[in-house]
Write a structure and sequence with these properties.
The chain is of the alpha+beta class. The protein folds into 2 domains: about 110 residues, Purple acid phosphatase-like, N-terminal (Immunoglobulin-like, Sandwich), CATH 2.60.40; about 325 residues, Purple Acid Phosphatase, chain A, domain 2 (4-Layer Sandwich). It is built from 9 helices and 21 strands. The N and C termini lie far apart (about 75 Å).
């Protein structure tokens, strides 16, 4: 009797004892109609799994497979949740070493709805942003901290979108990090552990691309020695459906949400050096451009988001804008016109300011480039008078910010509402684009 009593007495505290093994997360990755991905990181080798159930029905729980985290994989676990039903909201629980680890915020995920041939596509919304710098004084440059106002992640969480799209520079590798695998993994871990991030990670689906700072040094290109290590880190820490496409190593992929397609591009792995005077000059590489044009041509989506680390439309050849590679930029624009591809919108980051650019292409429809930056890195206060004559008046923002994009309406009358918010969630501007105007 004494032994049984002792075991019973200890059970309520078991979840708390296992919490000490939790480093970051859990996080929700991709969502399909019958499968989603869950991610978590421990700080030592541990057995992890998830129990899940349809919202409102905790009496019928299901379990994922159990995974053992290890040092070789930075103690991360990516666990697919399979054989789900479309269009359902699920709640889930984290178990470490067979003990429940409670979180002080909701843990949930959703499967996408099977709407085709049945009804109009569902309305949905997502949040986008880039340039998330998390301070760590001993490795940062001396002086005023570059990152801050992490409460922006709480403002994003309050929006309760369906997913978040990270537009690159989601991690800032420092000089002490980028030339060792251990340094790279330590930096990814440090950023992912930020307390303000955790509720957001646990209940929104997340997709990501990278730019120079989560790939390597500033303005890094295909010559970066450790690009295989940063690719490994990106794969370990993000829950995209795939990484790279046939013949194109890197992070390139695509996904669909409702009736909208997203094409996630890699502007680093194949990029030639910005200052190379002769020879080939490319941002994406021919194979990736061929894939993009194939994928765009095959898409029937009313909105086709081309997601890229750096600005595409801005004609001012500053820094790493695509206009610094004019031949390739022009070729892509020409192919979009020649192939009669409708609905293209560029989503970009990098610049530490936000703006919406519009390129008129008569007799073709206009192209838009929505740049959203920064989340927590230092804002760029010097671009207001930059020679971007494509900028739509009133959309320039030089403070920490994010965007919410909402797609709604009947199948043949889809509308995109773009809203830009400051770090507190206060709306700064909004803009509407009809799919019918992009044909």
């Amino acid at each position: 009797m004494v032994v049984l009593f002792s075991i019973t007495l200890l059970l309520p505290f078991a979840g708390y004892s296992q919490e000490k093994y939790l480093q970051a997360g859990p996080m929700v990755g991709y969502s399909e109609m019958r499968e989603v991905l869950l991610w978590v990181q421990t700080n030592a080798a541990a057995k992890v799994k998830f129990l899940y159930y349809e919202a409102g029905n905790p009496g019928q729980k299901f379990s994922t497979a159990e995974t053992l985290t290890g040092e070789e994989g930075a103690f991360t676990a990516k666990i697919p949740v399979e054989n789900l039903e479309p269009g359902r909201l699920y709640q889930y629980e984290l178990y470490i070493n067979n003990q429940l680890v409670k979180r002080p915020y909701p843990l949930k995920f959703q499967t996408q709805k099977l709407w085709q041939w049945r009804e109009d596509p569902p309305d949905f919304s997502f949040v986008a942003g880039s340039c998330a710098y998390v301070n760590e004084a001993q490795y940062d440059r001396p002086g005023e901290p570059y990152g801050g106002e992490y409460e922006i992640f709480s403002a994003i969480y309050q929006q309760q979108p369906d997913f978040m799209l990270w537009l690159g520079d989601n991690v800032y590798l420092r000089e002490a990090d980028w030339y060792s695998r251990s340094g790279i993994l330590a930096r990814y871990t440090h950023t992912r552990t930020l307390p303000e991030l955790q509720p957001l990670l646990g209940s929104l689906h997340h997709y990501a691309i990278w730019d120079d700072h989560d790939y390597g040094p500033n303005d890094s290109d295909r010559s970066f020695r450790n690009k295989q290590h940063t690719l490994e880190a990106f794969r370990l820490f993000w829950g995209n459906p795939t990484f790279g496409v046939e013949g194109v190593p890197g992070i390139t992929t695509m996904f669909q949400w409702a009736d909208v397609d997203f094409f996630l591009l890699d502007d680093r792995f194949h990029r030639t050096p910005n200052d190379r005077a002769g020879g080939e000059r490319t941002v994406l590489g021919k194979a990736q451009i061929d894939w993009l044009l194939d994928a765009l041509s095959a898409s029937r989506a009313p909105f086709k988001f081309v997601v890229l680390g750096g600005q595409f439309l801005n004609p001012f050849p500053y820094g790493e804008n695509y206009s610094a590679y004019p031949e390739e930029r022009s070729a892509i624009l020409t192919l979009i016109s020649q192939e009669n591809i409708s609905g293209v919108i560029f989503l970009t980051g990098d610049r530490h300011h936000s703006e919406l650019s519009k390129l008129e292409r008569k007799p073709h429809y206009p192209l838009y480039d929505l740049t959203i930056s920064p989340l927590t890195a230092g804002p760029n206060t010097k671009a207001a008078n930059e020679a971007n004559h494509l900028r739509i008046s009133g959309t320039y923002v030089n403070q920490r910010n994010f965007a919410r994009l909402a797609v709604s309406g009947p199948r043949k009358e889809r509308v995109l509402q773009i809203s830009n918010y400051d770090k507190t969630g206060r709306e700064l501007w909004n803009f509407t684009i009809k799919a019918s105007d992009l044909k």
